Amino acid sequence: MASKNIYLSQLTGDATYTQIVFNKVWGKVEADRAAYPEKKVFMMAFGDTSQPLPPTVVQGLVNAATRLGDRETYTGYEDVTGNPDLRHAICTNYYQKKLGIDFDPAELFVTDGAQSVSVNIQELFAPDNVVAIPNPAYPSFVEGTLLASRKLVDLPCHESDNFVPKLPQENVDIIYLCFPNNPTGSVATREQLQYFVDYAIARQAVIIFDAAYSAFITTPNIPKSIYEIEGAKKCAIEIGSFSKMANFTGLRVGWCVIPHSLMIQNTVPGELNDLWRIRHCVKFWGTANISQQGAIAALSETGQLECQEVVNYYLKNAGVLRQGLEKSGFQCFGGIDSPFVWLKATSGLSSWQFFEKMLQSTGIVGVPGCVFGNCGETYLRLAALGHREEIEGAVENADKYFK
Ligand code: PLP
């Protein structure tokens, strides 16, 4: 007799981020729209991209589709760890030329975005491993840990520390870090990341570093990759994504790096990389070949320049949003090296009360900070990945909050 997965069923109801956003946030917006059909709503809840793909990427996709339509150039299944040209381009054009970090392409696995690998990567570790997760955090880290039924240790993040967590107080085996951070928009300094790397090496723990927003870093000396930190290749797995750096949220391409030198107890160099290759062969047969060709085009010299223009557009959005809200009297964080602005609730309001007041008075829709963990209580996350006119409209309306 089959029985349901109890860990999965504990995520039903309003237990997951997606359900809360689509049911509760969206439900409240719909109710507001029904009550005030004339009112303009500024949707900044979703971290989805809005701008068209850069021309070089489009051309890469068109060329790939054309090749697939020709018997002479048609290709089917590819290397399940990713198109070798793409792995090579990520190693050379991203890690080597941009960041001065050397990898063998075999240390890299192409994925269908950062989302799935950020959760699935836990399969590399023993079931009793303890997972440390910043609070607030990107929800999948927590949801994936619950699904795997692992013990979870909270790492509270506070305004006073610029939302960078302190080291765990108890022994943990896996540590999630995400910088630039979703939801707070904060970044971590070299010194702060060095503490975590030193901690991980000393305890044979592994850092899962989500660098999905690395392209948004503009502040000098802020690391874009965990591997800019000394020792990180011994203790860290990095997850990257084309979603926000090249507008690939629909095309679905990301990667993860499992360095040969990453080691934990009872392993030899290269073993974790080998294990992940096996897991890849069993459970994942690669990303769409067309999408991978788009990613190769995105990493060409022209492709990179065009992609950075799109990132700059979102960064300008975030700047306009943050400055406009500050001018109206709000206290804001993030929005400088990140497309997310983390807005502090006005005095005495909870995240949800702030969300409601913001929606009712200004039409601005964000995600209540408490949805990302209880330390996000009294904040609201706004995503500046939409169209500039929307952002400007929102800023013009922001004053209404205080009237
Ligand atoms: N990690 C973080 C921190 C994110 O914010 C997101 C998407 O919003 C993801 C991962 C998933 O990105 P992808 O589209 O590459 O799956």
TrEMBL record:
Keyword terms of this UniProt record: Aminotransferase, Pyridoxal phosphate, Transferase
Family annotation (InterPro entries): Aminotransferase_I/II_large, DapL/ALD1, NHTrfase_class1_PyrdxlP-BS, PyrdxlP-dep_Trfase, PyrdxlP-dep_Trfase_major, PyrdxlP-dep_Trfase_small
Catalytic activity annotation: (2S,6S)-2,6-diaminopimelate + 2-oxoglutarate = (S)-2,3,4,5-tetrahydrodipicolinate + L-glutamate + H2O + H(+)
Residue intervals passing through the bilayer: none
Domain (Aminotransferase class I/classII large): residue spans on this chain: 57-396
GO molecular function: L,L-diaminopimelate aminotransferase activity; pyridoxal phosphate binding
GO terms classed as biological process: lysine biosynthetic process via diaminopimelate
Cofactor: pyridoxal 5'-phosphate
Pfam families to which the protein is assigned, alphabetical: Aminotran_1_2
This enzyme's EC code(s): 2.6.1.-
Pathway(s) annotated for this protein in UniProt: Amino-acid biosynthesis; L-lysine biosynthesis via DAP pathway; LL-2,6-diaminopimelate from (S)-tetrahydrodipicolinate (aminotransferase route): step 1/1
CDD domains in the cross-refs: AAT_like
Family statement drawn from the similarity comment of this UniProt entry: Belongs to the class-I pyridoxal-phosphate-dependent aminotransferase family.
Name of the protein in its database record: Aminotransferase
Species for this entry: Roseofilum reptotaenium AO1-A
Species classification: Bacteria, Bacillati, Cyanobacteriota, Cyanophyceae, Desertifilales
